[in-house]
Amino acid sequence: MLGLATSGRRDLVDGMVRDFAYLIDTYGHVPNGARTYYLTRSQPPFFFAMVGLVSPKDPGQAFAAYLPQLRREYAFWMEGAQGLRAGTSHRHVVALPDGSVLNRFWDDSDTPRDESYREDTELARTSRRPARPLFRDIRAAAESGWDFGSRWFAGRAHARDHGYHRIVPVDLNSLLFGLENAIRSGCERRGDEACALEFEPPSRRAAPFHRPLSLGCPQGAYLDYRWTKKTRMPRVSAATLYPLFVSLASKLQAAAVATITAGELLKAGGIVTTSLETGQQWDSPNGWAPLQWIAVSGLRRLWSDAARRGDRLPMDGQRQ
Questions:
Q1: What pLDDT is recorded for position 320?
Q2: Domain ranges of the chain
Q3: Which of 2, 47, 175, 311 has the most crowded CB, counting CB atoms within 10 A?
Q4: d(C-alpha 300, C-alpha 313), whole Å
Q5: pLDDT over threshold 90, residue 314
Q6: Residue 216 has pLDDT above 80, yes or no
Q7: Spatial CA neighbour of 73 closest among 40, 28, 124
């Protein structure tokens, strides 16, 4: 869509947004693919960013126009959050020990994926885990789009040992922060004060987000959080850049992410997905084009502010 907008095809951008809005109106979310067997899981919630391209000089106008769909998608991700007891979960929501709610990837089904039936059944055959929880984990990873990579492994383990639905991921919660801001902006544009107050301030997600996922860890990066064990996942991935993309990170936090990115993820060809080479497609040396966009978009904000102040940042010597 960014390419279409740059190429002057605003008509196709508008048409794609209408198509995705139709999916949300029909199914309550954007399915992981346009086939019936994908209805049990969503795409990551980028719809708000797509809507913003409809009126890039005034995103609030587009957010107001598509407010019903933005709110319906948000309701899909937050279903079951009301009254959820601390330390428990329901579908996409997790209540942390302090009662604050964050999100995880989830699939309602616990059977082999239709699109990868042979691979999933073979993995279950060789795994030490019961098949149904394993299938649900595989499907949760597929909802994330990061299928598969060491980001989700507790050690340098194989895909059979993962526990995706036990992880609160950095990227998903960053995108939902962006969605909350989009809803608030649309409500304000419509003059709906009650709706705007419901999503103000968006720091209701920011505070619990920063406690378990951010700079309390020695690496100075955002790390996924294994909520069932109250521990951060042990390695940095390109997901650490998502809080910069949605302006969730402070300047200090963004600078710390720039440092860790320069040290562990920035290579000759761009940002790698992780620093490990495991043979999985979401590991080094693969980078994936959307992650380059996330990184550039997030770091550009940091550099713009630094340039105004005359500051030098960790990656300045490597920007070319």
A1: 40
A2: 2-318
A3: 47
A4: 11
A5: no
A6: no
A7: 28
How open is the CA angle 199-217-141, to the nearest 5 degrees? 65
pLDDT in tens, 101-113: 999 999 999 999 9
256 pLDDT above the threshold of 80: yes
pTM for this structure? 0.92
**Sequence-separated (6 or more) residues with CB below 8 Å from residue 246:** 174, 175, 177, 178, 181
Residue 198 CB neighbour total at 10 angstroms: 14
Residue 128's φ and ψ, nearest 5 degrees, are -90, -5
Residue tagged 């920063």 (tokens): 210
Cα–chain center distance at 146: 10
192: Cβ–Cβ under 8 A, 6 or more apart, which residues?
none
- What lies within 8 Å, CB to CB, of 30 at 6+ separation is 20, 23, 24, 42, 43, 45, 47, 73
Q: How far apart are CA 63 and CA 69, in angstroms?
A: 9
2-318 fold: Glycosyltransferase (1.50.10)
Amino acid identity, position 132: R
Can you say how many angstroms the Cα of residue 76 is from the centroid of all Cα atoms in its chain? 15
